[in-house]
Design goal:
359 residues, alpha/beta, 7-stranded mixed sheet, two-stranded antiparallel sheet, 47% helix, binds nicotinamide-adenine-dinucleotide, binds zinc ion
């Protein structure tokens, strides 16, 4: 098992990463000083596979456990679901000493985290992420949120968990498409921040596709280390943390234009990274060979690199709606070679032209 500490003064916490950690969840929660009541927030899909293990582990460690199910799907990361969760928390008698355990992917983690941040002005919570995306990205860093009909993640809070417990074995049941989507975020860390990690991914692409637990532990650990480090330097996203948006500007635009069903988030990010690499080459930040190398790794890890057809105006519109623009230009994260980044102020028109998109 690997233990990483996220150092945020009084909000510091550990991330535990290993195979077969879930059966020890209760003990691990007790180890960080939690006791009494716990509400496990999860969805029917995850509850059916892992709910029993989580529940009995917590009960054995002396917790009074309530399981709260929310429906499966991004559309339920909503105010209506949150309201139902508050009802269930009150019904179960959770008080300030109680805690919330988020068992599931990013949807469960974001909503349960926001519930924990706001219920009784904040009660402790523990993240038990079960998707690759949640394990390498959303469970670390303390961003919690629900969606609003006008946009994703518009209502939320920065609220750090007390503990993140990552059992890589839970990935064995993750649908292939979700797994590959999570890999996009993994690749992101390599391209924008860490060349040796990018090289590791190139070297172990087959093991990663095969979901080799040993290899996954190394991969997830490195991603969490990078994310934790970035968050330590910029907890509330005033600057550096923007690097984590590499590939996301055009990725989000395609996600919006193509619709959330045609492209899941990670698939859109993979496309966004290919285009970001081309833009970076166009601005002299990296070579054509770097673009090729990034594209090849994305392909080898099972993600598409050719965007769906989209109208130029709709893409521009999506980019402008998504990003705060400064004099019409937006902050764009480029890769500097592979393993470093640079920030450019770019006009969206120029961005599209440099991306080589035929739109
Ligand atoms: N807070 C942050 O910093 C942050 C960062 C990135 C993304 N996010 C958010 O994360 C969300 C996306 O998260 P996601 O990609 O994990 O999606 P998700 O939570 O919808 O999970 C994807 C699917 O996998 C299923 N699932 C989860 N674990 C499983 C397992 N072990 N076995 C089988 N099925 C399993 C889920 O039931 C769901 O159907 C978005 O709402 C996004 O906004 C937040
Ligand atoms: Zn992302």
């Amino acid at each position: 098992m690997s233990v990483l500490t996220v150092n945020l003064a009084e909000n510091s916490y550990d991330i535990l990463i290993g195979s077969g950690l879930l059966p020890a969840l209760g003990q691990r929660c007790a180890d960080v000083g939690l006791s009494s009541r716990v509400a496990v927030i999860t969805n029917p899909t995850v509850n059916a596979i892992y709910g029993g293990i989580a529940r009995s582990s917590l009960a054995e460690a002396g917790f009074a456990v309530t399981v709260i199910e929310i429906p499966d799907g991004e559309e339920y990361k909503s105010a209506a679901t949150l309201s139902a969760v508050y009802d269930a928390l009150i019904e179960a008698g959770l008080d300030r000493r109680s805690c919330i355990v988020a068992l599931g992917g990013g949807v469960v983690g974001d909503l349960a985290g926001f519930a924990a941040a706001t219920y009784l002005r904040g009660i402790p919570f523990v993240q038990v992420p079960t998707t690759l995306l949640a394990q390498v990205d959303s469970s670390v860093g303390g961003k919690t949120a629900i969606d609003h009909p006008r946009g994703k993640n518009l209502i939320g809070a920065f609220y750090q968990p007390r503990l993140v417990l990552i059992d890589v074995e839970t990935l064995s049941t993750l649908p292939d498409r979700e797994y590959r989507a999570g890999l996009a975020e993994v690749i992101k860390y390599g391209v924008a921040i860490d060349l040796p990690f990018f090289e590791f991914l190139e070297l172990h692409a087959e093991d990663i596709i095969a979901r080799d637990p040993g290899c996954l532990e190394v991969v997830i650990r490195r991603c969490c280390e990078i994310k934790a480090h970035v968050v330590e330097l910029d907890e509330k996203e005033s600057g550096l943390r923007a690097v984590l948006n590499f590939g996301h500007t055009l990725g989000h635009a395609f996600e919006t234009v193509a619709g959330y069903r045609e492209l899941v988030h990670g698939e859109a990010v993979a496309l966004g990274m290919v285009l970001a690499a081309r833009i970076s080459a166009g601005l002299g930040h990296c070579s054509a060979a770097d673009v090729e190398r990034v594209t090849t790794l994305i392909t080898r890890l099972g993600l598409r690199t050719v965007p769906p057809e989209a109208e130029r105006v709709r893409l521009l519109d999506a980019v402008m709606t998504d990003k705060k623009s400064r004099n019409g230009s937006i902050s764009f994260i480029c890769n500097q070679g592979i393993g470093n980044f640079a920030v450019e102020q770019l006009l969206p028109e120029k961005m599209l032209t440099l991306s080589g998109l035929e739109v």
